[in-house]
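quick one, 261 residues, struct below
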Amino acid sequence: MVNRLYLKTLFVTTCYLIITLAANAQNGKELVLGEQPVYMVSRASGPIVADGKMDEPAWKNAEVQPLNYFFRSDKPADKQASKFRMLWDDENLYLFYEFEDTSITARETAFDARPYLDDCAEFFCLPVPDSLNMHFGFEVNVTLARYDYIMLWEFYQKRNFFLPDYNPEYKVGVTYDGTINNDKDRDKGWTMEYVIPIKVFRNFPRPRAGSKWAFQAVRQDRNLVDDKFRSTSTLFPTYDVRKDVHPPNRFGLMQFVGEIK
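---
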């Protein structure tokens, strides 16, 4: 009996360790070129205005992807639907975020402060297909408070550094269906549209058809005005045990598509 109990305990413990090691190996997986998921960025067929309305015909050609990788959520209601679209031309990147949201919330108003604690759409971009331990970051909340920076991943003693003095010129527009900062009503959602000039990615090669850049799209979703908690979802999985959206070696790729025939 003792031997059987010992063997059973040993078997269960071994299985647990194998599962744990496998999970940790996956969480620690570093994506390399050829393995990353790819988002195909169609070329814009006409001008686009950053007004948050997506009423230009060009948007019909954009690939639509959900932000379905949640890692910060308390309850099913925190997992609200999100859609992401992106286009490009010789001058700009065009981003469109579409969010269902029953409680639209944003308290940050200062520039280069903390819009990521609010309902916020984020875009991280590395204009090469490799991990360079850095990226450009753009974070804007629903009231258009901005935080843009160059992020250095594990730059010194495994610490991350954000350089907020990077203040590029780009345009953002928002629309929303509901009331901001009112916990008593039920809202429907909001949209955000970015127009980011290619020239803000300084000293990197300009894209052309077939080029690949690394990137991540993120949603922060805050549902109570007086609560700092927000759920977080991403376009690509982060595989990160620390639940951080910033590691460049977990980014997916955008691949620039040429003229539509």
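DSSP finds one helix and 14 strands in the chain.
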